[in-house]
Design brief:
By secondary structure, this protein is mainly alpha-helical. The protein has 11 helices and 2 strands, in the order H-H-H-H-E-E-H-H-H-H-H-H-H. The N and C termini lie close together (11 Å).
Length: 234
């Protein structure tokens, strides 16, 4: 099955909101390791920082950021990673990114990054708070799912291939597990949509529920059912 083309391609487009929220969470007060640990707690998910620890993968993140600016030009964008890059902290190849890396590219927390992020958010006037692990997981995963729903509705047919083969490499998702859309189905799309709507009220337009997600939630259906219906009529 082929995956249609779109601005930023399916992988970057879905991965972008996931890492956007991870950065927002750090800027709002969550610890870097806390975000990593919350997202890595799932048996099939990799945290947001290890995949972005080489200069090459930064290009994908930049592409995702450009998509967000194109779609939501008035919405605040995360800035901490850009600042780290400006300091030459590109990840494993430079020995420093969100973490420090030794000669074997093993990561260790870097107190300097915590100090820098705190300084930057203070200068930006961003309020800090304690953020529970459940919110970290929900914001990152549901942002990914919500964008995936937009892609599906655009007819790009990413349900089986894009999120499984491309994102499986980035998020360490075993292919048989089905990926983010499958994950949303197991949670229940009404629950996912309700939480996305809550984040929409809290954080603005960038969290508006995808029409497909909202429609399937209201109908009590799943992404799997939608995909089967679409493929049967293709």
């Amino acid at each position: 099955m082929l995956v249609g083309n779109c601005r930023g391609f399916v992988g970057n487009r879905m991965f972008g909101p996931y890492r956007r929220e991870a950065q927002f969470l750090v800027e709002e007060g969550a610890g870097i390791e806390a975000v990593d640990q919350a997202l890595s707690a799932s048996a099939w998910l990799w945290g947001p920082w290890p995949p972005a620890t080489s200069r090459a993968s930064m290009s994908g993140c930049a592409s995702a950021k450009n998509i967000a600016i194109w779609k939501y030009p008035t919405i605040r964008q995360p800035f901490a990673e850009d600042r780290l890059c400006e300091l030459g902290r590109y990840g494993q190849k430079t020995g420093a990114g969100w973490y420090k890396y030794d000669d074997q590219r093993r990561a260790t927390p870097d107190p300097l990054v915590t100090e820098l992020v705190r300084k930057w958010v203070d200068e930006a006037g961003i309020a800090q708070r304690q953020i529970p692990a459940e919110e970290i997981t929900a914001r990152c995963l549901y942002a990914l799912v919500n964008e995936g729903a937009r892609i599906l509705e655009e007819g790009l047919r990413a349900a089986r291939l894009g999120h499984r083969h491309n994102l499986s490499q980035r998020l360490r998702i075993p292919r048989p597990s089905g990926g983010p859309m499958w994950y949303a189905d197991t949670i229940g799309l009404k629950q996912v949509c309700d939480r996305v709507s809550e984040f929409h009220r809290q954080h603005g337009e960038i969290w508006r529920p995808a029409p497909l997600l909202k429609r399937l939630a209201e109908q009590g259906k799943t992404f799997a059912e939608f995909s089967r219906d679409q493929f049967a009529t293709a």
